[in-house]
Write a structure and sequence with these properties.
Layout: E1 9-11, E2 17-19, E3 27-33, H1 42-53, E4 58-64, H2 76-87, H3 106-114, E5 130-133, E6 139-143, H4 153-159
Parallel strand pairs: 3-4
Antiparallel strand pairs: 1-2, 3-5, 5-6
Domain Thioredoxin: 1-160
GO molecular function: peroxidase activity
Family: Belongs to the glutathione peroxidase family.
């Protein structure tokens, strides 16, 4: 079994491979995002958290996903521009991924088994599901899409 997120590499929104080991010793919040979702305004709070705690070791990683209500139909460039223009997103974004089903990104397979959802569920239920990862690269908590980013600030602080 995979021990941490550091065992994975992912592709950023510019098409470059990024080993997650680059984020070693940081607290990481991983979020599956969408541009046309009722939760899309959470980008604003995610960016606020990133700005507030980046210097203390927080990094937020956004993974656009089109699996829920087809709410992320754009290509990588369109998604990137949308996030930057509408929400000033400066945290790292990655290429569009699948978080459920046979083509699940391996990172998400690890996250879902490490930090299960309600009643032990592994499936990601909707856009803006958040996984909090400690400085050792272990997924420790999953937050529902309805949980606003600022509501998990205390959990982030405990790990920082």
């Amino acid at each position: 079994m995979t021990a941490s997120i550091y065992d994975f590499s992912v592709t950023n929104i510019q098409g470059q491979t990024v080993p997650l080991a680059e984020y070693k010793d940081r607290v990481v919040l991983i979020v599956n995002t969408a541009s046309k979702c009722g939760f899309t305004p959470q980008y604003k709070e995610l960016e606020q958290l990133y700005q507030k705690y980046q210097a203390q070791g927080l990094v937020i990683l956004g993974f656009p996903c089109n699996q829920f209500g087809a709410q992320e139909q754009g290509d990588n460039e369109t998604i990137s521009q949308f996030c930057e223009l509408n929400f000033g997103v400066s945290f790292p974004l990655f290429e569009k991924v699948e978080v459920n089903g046979p083509n699940t990104l391996p990172l998400y397979r690890y996250l879902k088994t490490s930090a299960k959802g309600l009643l032990g569920s592994e499936k990601v239920k909707w856009n803006f599901t958040k996984f909090l990862v400690n400085r050792q690269g272990e997924a420790v908590t999953r937050f529902a899409p309805t949980t606003k980013p600022m509501a998990i600030e205390a959990d982030i602080l405990k790990l920082l």
